[in-house]
Amino acid sequence: MDQTRRPTYLNGHPGREGGPHALWIPGAFGPDPPPYEAYSSNPLPSYAPLRPRNETRREYLTRLAKDTMSTAKKGAYVYRQQTISLKEYINESEKGTIFYDEDSELKNWKRKPNSKTQGDVEAMISILNITTLDAARLLDNSYRFHAQATQPNSGIQPAPPKTGVLNFASATKAGGGFLNGAEAQEESIARVSTLYPSLCTKEAKKFYTKHDEKRRDATDFYTHSMIYSPGVVVFRNDLGDAVDPYFINVVSCAAVNAGKVSG
After folding, report:
1. Torsion angle (degrees, nearest 10) of CA 42, 58, 227, 217
2. Alpha-carbon distance 185 to 189, whole Å?
3. What is the predicted pLDDT for the residue at 32?
4. What confidence score (pLDDT) does residue 217 get?
5. Domains parsed from the chain with CATH numbers
6. Using CA atoms, how far apart are residues 2 and 247, in angstroms rounded to an integer?
7. So what's the pLDDT on residue 241?
8. Are 47 and 22 in contact (CB under 8 A)?
9. pTM reported for the whole predicted model
10. β-strands 242-254, 164-169 pairing
11. In angstroms, how far is the first alpha carbon of the chain from the final one?
């Protein structure tokens, strides 16, 4: 997928990130959400800044997750009175999803350096007390500002760097518990982006099958298997407000189940 382009705005020009637009979907939801394919009949989401006073945070996050599912299925969302297309990017992300088994060629990465990617370029490490998506947004903004500063009048912008995100994934369930209002790191990403469709592909399901087999073997340790989800579009911030979309490339890998191995 060509990530040098911004997502398509169907009826106007892109806006910039602005004020609150928390999502509102009427109705109650049970503990077992429908599958991803079921979210196709609702209109494009409308926005309202407040949620009902009697709604708990978990209920709100559940509702927000379901709206994200509906938005992904529709392939578009509304931001600043503009309809922004996501369908092309979701399709490309699904096609590009790759499952890497723990015995894949990646296990030899230390012994097989890639001369094309390993050079003398200086790396910068920042330690920030912010969320994963706030960090990704900062990087995306830095790419834009750098391009404007270095080539302000060229008319040709070089391909921006790609932002990689490590998803501390559930080993057995795509998106973890985000459809039920859970608040761990994976859920926070799935709730505001197009990650979930990638995790539901036939290719990605190999990851969960692998770990289901591990559970049947009565082991408490997960594998080093990974899912690569390219070109995931983030179209909301951590609060659920609609934002100007940006891309991340996500590696989903299961962390150690601390509750099982800590004794």
Report:
1. -120
2. 7
3. 40
4. 62
5. 36-122+165-261 (3.40.220.10)
6. 11
7. 87
8. yes
9. 0.75
10. parallel
11. 45
Can you give the pLDDT at residue 22? 30
Closest CA to 245 of 144, 150, 156: 144
Whole-angstrom distance, CA of residue 162 vs CA of residue 141: 12
Q: Which amino acid is at 186?
A: E
Q: What is the rounded distance in angstroms from the CA atom of residue 185 to the CA atom of residue 176?
A: 9
What is the distance between the alpha carbons of residues 134 and 199, in angstroms, rounded to a whole number? 22
Res 39: pLDDT: 43
- The tokens describing 126, both together, are 């920042």
Q: Please name the amino acid found at residue 185.
A: Q
Stretches where the chain sits below pLDDT 50 are 1, 8-43, 45-49
- Show the beta-strand stretches assigned E in the chain: 76-79, 82-85, 98-100, 164-169, 226-236, 242-254
What's the burial of 189, exposed, middle or buried (CB within 10 Å: 0-12/13-18/19+)?
buried
Classify residue 135 as exposed, middle or buried by CB count within 10 Å of its CB (0-12, 13-18, 19+): middle
Dmax of the chain from CA atoms? Answer: 61
**Cα 232 to the center of its chain, rounded Å:** 5
